Amino acid sequence: MPSIKAYLPDADIWKAGLRTAVAGGLALLVAQLLALPQGYWSVMTAIVIMQTRLGASLKAAGDRVLGTLAGAAFGFVVALLTPSTPGWTWVGLIFSIGVLGMLAAYRPSYRVAPMTAAIVLVATPSHAVALISATHRVTEILIGCAVGILVSLVVTPARSDTSLRNEANHAIGLLVKLIGLDIAGQSGKPDEAARSQVNDEIYNSYRTIDTLTREVQEEQASHISRGSLDPERLRLCLRDLRTSTFLLRRVTRLPWPTSLDAGMAGSAKAVTDNIGSYLLAIGGALSGQVAPPATDNLEGSFAAFASATRSLIEQASPAASDSASSTVAPAAADDHAVAYLANLSFALEQVRYSTEKLAECVADMAGATDRS
């Protein structure tokens, strides 16, 4: 029988619900204390901008304020320039929401502007009090935004900084999984369904990383987060790692040359295994805000692979072929093996370079705690 914990929401879910409830209640209380005529706009604004993470709440609040100011100002000007009759109100409404709708399509941050202008034009008994209506709407929206940000800061705050670190760790794990699938495919038929699923997960994770990067930048621009995490540098290092991993994937999807012995295949697999292990260690260090470990095992496996590759190339050279016995593999097969190893070596070096750059990035951000 499942335990009670199985039916309870996890910590992130109930904390989000708590923040939303507190923000809505506090916004209504402030609106009532100020005797605003339509305090529910404060409540709705606080609920709308209340996001899972602080950085997202800041972005939503900024967009809400921009859209509200633009819509209220435009609606007020149109109200002043048109007679206070039902027909002209209809004309002013169509014109306002049309123009502001184009603005919202061009700049999504202004998507609330058409709605605000419509409220200013339609919800007033006459155009003579349009300024009062616009002032009330702006005040109510600003209260909702202020309350939402305050609650996000005080009530079980969720930092985008931490979420970015954890999502980056998740993305690294997916790349390691993809490398493992491709190497495993060399010894048999590749699992294309598994590859496709991991590819989709990688792209989704990187889209989340792009979003979190912007959220962390919002927190840092607002001086709410003062940690040493460099979100843009981390994002670029992760993109480089994805590019080099996909390059390795293109090489390893090709059939393994039959002229290469098991020892060579084992050497190549040892390199990829150590790359995967070290990448996972980097991801763990990133989440734990510590420096990544040394690269001794990785360096050793690369050295062994490079030595085996040089030995095979020397054996496949024309001079070696002339003095070799009749048991040596045909020249065409040797050429194919040499070309494959050259491509594989290049791809592995690219992954190695990307891995080292990511390790440097994580080491520089080690201990980057949020001191807000």
Overview of the structural elements:
This protein is mostly helical and 372 residues long. It has 2 domains: 11-154, no CATH class; 160-364, Methane Monooxygenase Hydroxylase, Chain G, domain 1, CATH 1.20.58. It has 13 helices and no strands. It has helices at residues 11-33, 40-49, 54-81, 86-106, 113-122, 130-154, 160-184, 192-221, 231-252, 262-288, 296-315, 318-323, 331-364. The longest helix has 34 residues, at 331-364. Residues 319-333 and 368-372 have low confidence and may be disordered.
Would you state the CATH class of the largest domain? Answer: Mainly Alpha
Question: Based on helices, strands and strand pairing, what is the structural class?
Answer: mainly alpha
Rg, alpha carbons: 30 Å
Q: Mean of the pLDDT scores?
A: 78
Sheet-strand content, in percent, reads under 5%
User: Can you write the helix and strand succession as a string?
Assistant: HHHHHHHHHHHHH
Helical content (DSSP H or I, runs of 4+):
over 70%
CATH architecture assignment name of the largest domain: Up-down Bundle
What is the name of the CATH topology of the largest domain? Answer: Methane Monooxygenase Hydroxylase, Chain G, domain 1
Instruction: State the separation between the terminal residues, measured CA to CA.
Output: 44 Å
Tally of strands: 0
Number of separate structural domains: 2
List the total number of helices. 13
The largest β sheet comes out as: none
Uncertain ranges: 319-333, 368-372
User: Quick one: overall form?
Assistant: elongated
